[in-house]
Specification:
By secondary structure, the chain is mainly alpha-helical. It has a two-stranded antiparallel sheet with strand order 1-2. The chain is elongated. The chain is built from 2 helices and 2 strands. It has helices spanning 3-18, 65-83, and strands at residues 53-55, 62-64. The two termini are 24 Å apart. The structure holds zinc ion. Residues 36, 38-39, 41, 56, 58-59, 61 line the site of zinc ion. The site of zinc ion (ZN) has 8 residues, from loops.
Length: 84
Amino acid sequence: MDNGFGMFRALLGYKLEDRGKRLVTVGRLFPSSQLCHECGYRFSGTKDLSVREWTCPLCGRTHDRDVNAARNIRDEGMRLALSA
Ligand SMILES: [Zn+2]
């Protein structure tokens, strides 16, 4: 991990703690860009970083790579926060 980002993350954690909140981090290997946010199907075609948009072969939903990944990260963070 880049030291600058590590510092940013540590400071963010302290700031949140000051406000009675906590930082939840999603595992590095969580396949956020591979999972269809709609049905959960794992599509390995997005391992190619040049794929910016894709259609789920299972449910047919078309995803913007980054928006889909952001939704999956949000949901995984909520799941982790609620299970801790
Ligand atoms: Zn799907």
